Batch of 3 targets.
Target 1
Amino acid sequence: MRGLALNFASTHQTKNPLGFSEVGENKQLLIAIVVSRFFIPLLLQICQYYSRLNLQLVCTVFS
């Protein structure tokens, strides 16, 4: 009986158990492009801010 229950569970798994709708490849590509166009400039601004901050800290330490 236990083997029968295991067999039933293994053959009746849903393809998408969490209920998320599947997204096609074209939509995934579009999402990736939109997200990257938003986050890349943001990351560049953060890096520039911290590099300026580090340069200022180095200048104040050595002066």
Target 2
Amino acid sequence: MDGDEMTRIFWKSIKDKLIFPFLDWDIKYFDLGLTHRDATMIKLPLKRTDSLQEHSLPHWTKPICIGKHAFGDQYRATDTVIKGPGKLKLLFVPEGKDEMTELELHNFTGEGGVAIAMHNTDESICAFVEASMNTAYEKKVASYNSTKNTLLNKYDGRFKDIFQEVYDALWKSKYEAAGIWYEHHLIDDMVAYAFKSEGGYVWASKNYDGDVQSDFLAQEAEPVHGAVTRHYRVHQKSGETSTNSIASIFVWTRELEHKAKLDDNFTQTLEEACIETVESGKMTKDLALVLNGPNLARNHYLNTEEFIDVVAAELNAKLS
């Protein structure tokens, strides 16, 4: 399945120089580039979906709607670097009252460390519960909430408790009448379930969990490199780019490795060719920058096509 921009450029080079010369493979090709999609309207994506089903490739058959609680937690946290020994405390001073709550978090005895304090509010959690429950009810699908309440008994436990209280009071009878349900799961269990499920539910996540898991969900249709737009704009102007294509090469090797009817030595050999090319000092600009820092010069790296050509030469040498 072909995409857009810079990924499309070196995807073709990888196929033409590293895959097709060595494998006699009946490949099914779909051009999902924006230009071709516009020209064919909806027909091409539907054809691609039908093909996935025809060839029994694993995929979700129903939508997964991830709700991210976009307030608080790490995103409004206060963090600091601790210098030297001392006690770290958390202090709450209630408005209009004299009594304070003071918690000792850690007694630093060495050179110091790091600390973070984060928060959330009942009002924000309640609003998130209402949005999550209502979305699932409108879609007539199950609703799940995930936390790590076994570790953060009070913090994540507060999320779990409010979800359950609001569900029992306002939504349980509606859900039962609609034939749907609400459940709380540990984040570990929910991630594992998402991998093997067919989809078809609303997943209400805490702020950071939703940030991570929405990317996990999007990866089904997202290029491994992203669009690399900045490099593509340079390419359009006939400028030189040095885009790292190793991840895309490994997409091919891991897919081929999964197909048992193919020679399992080829995938390992191609990966070795990539790794040994870099280890020999031939690499793209991003890797050369790590090695050379501010002293980076043009002779330290290869451009996009040069790198793939060197890997192809290394692969040919290994297979000959």
Target 3
Amino acid sequence: MFTIRNNLMAETAGRLVARNYATLATSVERLASGLRINSARDDPVGLAVRELLRADVVMYQQASRNALDGVSMLQVAEGALSEIDEVLIRMKSLAEQASNDTYSAAQRTVMDEEFNELAAEVTRIAESSNYNGKEQLSGVGTTVNIYLINGSIAISSDDMTADGLNIESTEAVTEVWTHSYYKTSADEIYIPDSDISQATADIFSFEFSVDSGAIVTDLDTYKNTGITLNELITEINTVAGYTAATAEYDVGYNAYRLGLTAENAGDTTMTWGGGEPNSHAGR
């Protein structure tokens, strides 16, 4: 008895259906993922190239986020600096106002108290400014590096406290002396060598006394050359330990003269090489 064990036409049809189904499955997979290459069987070389490109894209995206984080950090610091700037402007206004001789000692004391409170506020703002726990303006923070692909940008931490800005709280308002001798440039000889060498005991000194305390600058080393206004300012400030001397510009004369600032107002006298210059002018 004969039996049919194989159906070649059915097997061929089944094989073709399976092949078409695999092709359909690949097409559906590509449509669903949006990718032409979904696995190594699709294109081994193409898959390797695609993964390298995808890694680069991810790296650039992260670098962009790093840059945005850095911008956010700077924006926080900028906001704090804007507040500090407003406080400093008010402090400058107070210093200018209080140096006017039309105010009484009691009024100046009130101004000085506000000045000191503002100095404390500058420190408070600087110390409270931080980004993700990293202090930015207190002077104790470390440098933050923002990494961008093949390089980095360093954001340093500066000291913007009252001490860092050299803001000195005083017990009284400053006073200013100005000398009546003018020079068109602060780099010109302000005291000639003849005046220095002929001084008493062959030593020309500049004495600036505040509240019974004296600041004495010995200019004997300049007796053969004379001294410029800028050099004199440097000598005085070195001895004083603070910015006591400045080059005051007079618009009316279009020239410079020596200006001295007392750190604490009070009985202020100034001796110029053994003689009195001119009386002090509050400013």
